[in-house]
């Protein structure tokens, strides 16, 4: 059974609702640096980490191009393949900017994904708790946090 | 091209009871051209109507009824009408509940031919 899992529990319900409404096959919620916050549909940690890194890289490249063109910030891009479509969007929350990478199949469409994504972004902003003051990042904490994130995302 | 689409939509919106008409990309559910009254959420209607049409298409083919030619969704406060248009588009109409469906269907067919 495909599961939705989240490192940040407040993202779980909005993500589950979005996935159900938009009929998304895969969904990944990350920070702009590629740190995973929640995922739906992935079964292997390596796939999540690869998708997160690639999504963040695409978003960074696109943002740089928009900066060079003196355009407003990157919001969303989509790619329609033969059997799957990919939607990558940048949005703001009280916890800072986030990225959503969504993969959908023939039972959905870019129109549906865009439609329900707007609501998803609003739901996340509403569910987001007040940001905590930033703590210094230590190597030991980083590894522990990474292991905790993987455990939360894959139940291991 | 846009003028042709707009002229075709205007033809449909002249029917009494029509609150809006749209040409929608069937596969994507995105609006190609629209002529809507205020308060009708074009993007949402387009995405959902295209999804509905896709599912009806599948159901109709599974039931060996062929390709759907006209969809009429009658709701308590209005109607949604849809018919395939050329180039992979769908002509979607949002209307009042008491619309003359026969007349609307006729104008929708003519509009579909006009955008071919």
Features:
heterodimer; A: 156 residues; alpha+beta; Beta-Lactamase; 4 helices; B: 116 residues; 5-stranded antiparallel β-sheet
Main sheet of chain B, how many strands, which sense, barrel?
5 strands, antiparallel
The CATH class of chain B is Alpha Beta
Number of domains in the coordinates of chain A? 1
**Quaternary structure type:** heterodimer
CATH architecture of chain A: 2-Layer Sandwich
Give an account of the 3D structure.
- The complex is a heterodimer of chains A (156) and B (116).
- Chain A is an alpha+beta fold and 156 residues long.
- Chain A has a single domain (4-154), classed as 2-Layer Sandwich (Beta-Lactamase), CATH 3.30.450.30.
- Chain A is built from four helices and six strands; from the N terminus they run βαββαβββαα.
- A six-stranded antiparallel sheet of chain A has the order 1-3-2-6-5-4, sandwiched between helices.
- In chain B, a hairpin with a 2-residue loop joins β3 and β4.
- The mean pLDDT of chain B is 93.
- At the A-B interface, α3 of A face α2 of B.
Summarize the structure.
The complex is a heterodimer of chains A (156) and B (116). Chain A is an alpha+beta fold and 156 residues long.
Please describe the topology of this protein.
The complex is a heterodimer of chains A (156) and B (116).
Chain A: E1 4-6, H1 12-22, E2 24-31, E3 36-40, H2 45-68, E4 76-80, E5 85-93, E6 96-104, H3 110-127, H4 139-154
Antiparallel strand pairs in A: 1-3, 2-3, 2-6, 4-5, 5-6
Chain B: H1 2-13, E1 18-25, E2 30-36, H2 42-62, E3 71-75, E4 78-85, E5 89-95, H3 101-114
Helix pairs in contact in B: 1-3
